[in-house]
């Protein structure tokens, strides 16, 4: 092989290498373009993540508020529980007093019935005595002072 042939082979290889390098440059440009797209996507993801972080902070704040509200409700419920226990105690006390009053009323009714019965017996006895006197007066006219 002559020098000229060798140079032709080298030239051909250099041309092939240049073509390969141009292809590589095109590929690299494509990769760069893709990288720019990926960077843009990553920036979009970062922006979305920042938005999500902000949303999460808002949710955390709302949860803290809800916890505070729940604590308030719990405190109110404890107060209501105490009020209900007091009401139950008052009801028991009222029931006891009502039972006592009912017993007193029944006892008073019994005493009054007995007193009324005694009074009726006394009145009937007195009426019977007056009848006896009147009967005696009817049979013995001299007993009447108004007729004599």
From TrEMBL:
Q: Which domain of life is it from?
A: Bacteria
UniProt-listed Gene3D superfamilies = 1.20.5.190, Helix hairpin bin
Tagged with keyword Transcription: no
A Pfam family this protein belongs to? Answer: CENP-F_leu_zip
Q: Which GO terms describe its molecular function?
A: dynein complex binding; protein homodimerization activity
Q: Which residues form the Centromere protein Cenp-F leucine-rich repeat-containing domain?
A: 17-113
Q: Keywords, A to Z?
A: Coiled coil
Residues in a coiled coil are: 70-111
Q: Which SUPFAM superfamilies match?
A: Tropomyosin
Protein name (record): Centromere protein Cenp-F leucine-rich repeat-containing domain-containing protein
UniProt lineage: Bacteria, Bacillati, Bacillota, Clostridia, Lachnospirales
